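Input (structure):
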């Protein structure tokens, strides 16, 4: 008789993918994340009893737990295959306790990628639950619970209801507030530059040189007067090539993505928020149905990682593919050095098979899935390729004692740039190659241009630059970057303006309270040190409760002082132009976990509230009502009729304001993107025009 086996994963999507790889003897179920956790209604930590957590079955998960218990009783073997990280290990531990499975038995299976080979190999090699990993998760959970559930009530009482404090979110808010203060306190410094357009009489080619200084020594031009004097001098003297230095420069490929670098690159290239990047990456990891012989497969390895390691078989496959596609001179396989603090249990983020080319599966993916998969595929492929090689030239020019410099470069060998080019926060100007110049040869001055500049303040943080700052300072871990940013935005501490993260008055007030009363919590070094302690728990060198025993006494002292010292602060709500129809007051903007809404300032006498109405200026083609901008439960923008739900009109593409279809008079819609277009809502009408024409 065949052995009945139950395999429990976290998500239904993953369960669906894995079920297709295993035989009829396997039942695959999803726990839907945590089933057991600390209660929401109270702290759930007994501080007096050595910080013992009081775990409960999460509300709404009782029926699911009953089903899991029922299936576990039927099964001869139960495998716990939750995610391969601290959080996943803790979920497996809770499941083991709930299902009466011995955590010391070989019940735990993990895989870095969801492919048939990886899943079957993992099941052949089950292991015990790693209690060091579980304890690291417990330490973080209990620590964050103590901080959040003791500071938040003080903020509610002294500032505003609904506020929260957390270890990592408080540091992130402080970083954003500190940067805003730097910008506000910044004093611009004036400086000038001179560019000379020169012509080489031999090649007849023009190029630009910049003023550097006097007799080879650098001189900074700080005002118009001294700049004009130099500029006038340059018009009277002869320009001669003094020195020519040619050489070669290599540009090395970047390592494959970690969670942090993927979020940064997706933010820069596609303007994805960190949370969106992780949602799409989760789908790619859990499985996409590609049809045909391949069927459903996970396209990328586990997406929460700070390791740069690549599996030997994946590297071997990449070398074979790249050699065949580009030639051996383009291939340079390498393993990248992972930083000390990284959790090396996982690989870097890579495609599960480099042979699954993005373009070949484009029709099986959504546009966002395709773009992210393409980014991951290209970065991994490039990481195993040769460096790009540039011919470079640096020229020093003497003009009557004034020194000017020019430089140029030209790509000699494309190497990895054939596949992928990195993005940065700063836009780089393309550098052209200079003409072939010879020393002691004269040049012809065509024109000079004086330019006034001012030093610029530091840029506000974006998702990408904040994640980089958190990672470089050792704050948080791969799984925390996206939720941290989402939390500080949803709490109203920070608002988004395009890519910029800007602190609100509420953010400044809360950050100031935290700095003055809980300096350790918002201290970058203290928080980074705490992350190291949690890593030590994972390694088994520190007991998790010892961290709390060391942390709590001074924290408790800070709590007591804060309760006495913080004075009540009144933050004025932002007033709107909307008049309350019930009492005539001007309504104010309020913030809930679902976003902004309008409320009457006369509460509790007047309890009138209403949703913020954003009109598009276009009329509903079904009933003639106003088409409004709306948001789905997941925060995605769509457009619907003001008379919803009576009128069911709803579209994803933006309606065109005050313009009807020139062919049938129906509503026009605008589809954004590289292949953007304006097209008619009427399915029987084929009218459309390219968006590029509009932009011109």
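Output (sequence):
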């Amino acid at each position: 008789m065949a052995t009945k086996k139950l395999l429990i994963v976290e998500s239904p999507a993953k369960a669906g993918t894995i079920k297709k790889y295993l035989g009829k003897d396997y039942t695959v179920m999803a726990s839907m994340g945590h089933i057991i956790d600390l209660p929401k209604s109270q702290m759930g930590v007994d501080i007096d009893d050595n910080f013992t957590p009081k775990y409960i079955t999460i509300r709404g998960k009782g029926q699911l737990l009953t089903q899991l218990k029922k299936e576990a009783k039927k099964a001869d073997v139960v495998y716990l295959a939750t995610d391969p990280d601290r959080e996943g290990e803790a979920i497996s531990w809770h499941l083991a306790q709930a299902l009466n499975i011995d955590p010391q038995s070989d019940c735990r299976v993990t895989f870095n990628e969801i492919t048939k080979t990886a899943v079957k190999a993992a099941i052949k090699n089950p292991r015990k639950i790693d209690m060091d990993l579980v304890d690291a998760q417990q330490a973080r959970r209990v620590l964050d619970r103590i901080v959040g559930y003791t500071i938040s009530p003080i903020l509610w009482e002294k500032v505003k209801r609904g506020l929260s404090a957390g270890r990592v979110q408080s540091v992130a808010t402080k970083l954003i507030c500190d940067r805003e203060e730097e910008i506000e306190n910044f004093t611009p410094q004036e400086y000038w530059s001179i560019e000379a357009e020169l012509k080489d009489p031999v090649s007849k080619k023009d190029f630009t040189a910049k003023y550097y200084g006097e007799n080879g020594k650098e001189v900074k031009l700080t005002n118009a007067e001294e700049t004009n004097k130099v500029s006038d001098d340059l018009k009277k003297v002869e320009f001669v090539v003094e020195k020519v230095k040619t050489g070669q420069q290599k540009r090395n490929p970047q390592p494959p993505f970690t969670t942090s670098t993927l979020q940064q690159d997706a933010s820069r290239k596609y303007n994805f928020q960190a949370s969106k990047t992780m949602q799409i990456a989760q789908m790619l990891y859990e499985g996409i149905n590609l049809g045909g012989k391949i069927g459903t497969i996970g396209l990328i390895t586990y997406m929460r990682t700070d390791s740069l390691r690549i599996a030997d078989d994946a590297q071997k496959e990449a070398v074979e593919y790249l050699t065949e596609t580009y030639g051996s001179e383009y291939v340079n396989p390498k393993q990248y050095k992972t930083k000390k603090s990284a959790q090396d249990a996982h690989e870097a983020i890579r495609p599960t098979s480099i042979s699954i080319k993005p373009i070949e599966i484009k029709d099986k993916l959504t546009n966002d899935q395709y773009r992210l998969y393409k980014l991951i595929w290209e970065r991994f492929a490039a990481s195993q390729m040769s460096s790009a090689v540039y011919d470079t030239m640096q020229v020093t020019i003497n003009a009557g004692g004034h020194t000017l410099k020019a430089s140029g470069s030209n790509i000699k060998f494309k190497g990895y740039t054939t596949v992928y080019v990195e993005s940065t926060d700063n836009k780089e100007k393309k550098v052209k190659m200079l003409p072939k110049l010879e020393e002691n040869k004269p040049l012809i001055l065509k024109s000079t241009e004086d330019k006034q500049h001012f030093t610029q303040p530091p840029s506000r943080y974006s998702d990408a630059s904040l994640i980089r700052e958190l990672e470089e300072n050792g704050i948080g871990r791969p799984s925390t970057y996206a939720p941290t940013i989402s939390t500080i935005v949803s709490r109203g501490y920070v608002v988004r303006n395009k890519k910029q993260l800007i602190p609100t008055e509420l953010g400044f007030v809360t950050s100031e309270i935290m700095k003055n009363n809980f300096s350790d919590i918002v201290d970058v070094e203290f928080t980074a040190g705490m992350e190291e302690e949690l890593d030590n728990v994972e390694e088994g060198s520190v007991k998790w409760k010892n961290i709390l025993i060391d942390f709590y006494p001074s924290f408790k002292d800070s709590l007591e002082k804060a309760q006495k010292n913080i004075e009540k602060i009144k933050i004025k709500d932002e007033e709107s132009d909307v008049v309350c129809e019930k009492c005539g007051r001007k309504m104010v903007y309020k913030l809930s976990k679902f976003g902004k809404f309008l409320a009457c300032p006369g509460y509790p006498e007047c309890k009138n509230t209403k949703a913020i109405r954003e009109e598009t200026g276009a009329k509903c083609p079904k009933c003639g009502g106003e088409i409004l901008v709306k948001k789905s439960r997941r925060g995605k923008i769509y457009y619907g009729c003001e008379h919803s739900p009576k009128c069911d009109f709803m579209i994803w593409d933006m309606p065109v304001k005050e313009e009807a279809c020139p062919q049938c008079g129906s509503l026009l819609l605008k589809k954004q993107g590289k292949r953007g277009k304006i097209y008619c809502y009427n399915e029987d009408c084929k009218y459309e025009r390219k968006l590029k024409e509009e932009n011109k």
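Notes: The radius of gyration is 31 Å. The first helix runs from residue 12 to 19.
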